[in-house]
Amino acid sequence: MTRLLLVATLLGALLAAPPAAAAQPRGGGGDDAERAFVESLRGRDPAGAERYVALRDAREQAIAELRRVEAQYAAAGSELRPVFLSPLKAARRTYAARSLAVLDFLDAHDRQALAEHQEAIGRINALLETRGQARARLEKLLKDE
Description:
This protein starts with a helix and ends with a helix. It has 4 helices and no strands. By secondary structure, it is an all-alpha fold. Helix content is 84%, strand content 0%. Helix 2 (32-44) packs antiparallel against helix 3 (46-75) and helix 3 packs antiparallel against helix 4. Residues 1-27 have low confidence and may be disordered. It has one domain (29-144).
């Protein structure tokens, strides 16, 4: 009975423990490169920028939750670790799913940018071809005279 009370007390203390300071999501959206990316995206696709920010924030929350659960798991003794295994696995799955959502967004964004660049390259190549033809006609005029 005393051992059960001790286990219940420890379990309650671990569950009520605040997350570590390092587990808190970053404030303000990260580093300068990411802020520049978001601002650039806002200029071209405001809805896409909001979607990216929401996905990024959800991933950061998942990271914070994973760190919190990992800390609880690490702090638990070997007898209590099985209690934290299921929440740990769930936190890992959530982190993975949210990280994949961010990667999917970035892949779609990059594929769209790639298609736009390829289209621009096609237009430039057509202009070069047109100018090349004009150059050939002009050079022929010079030779004929």
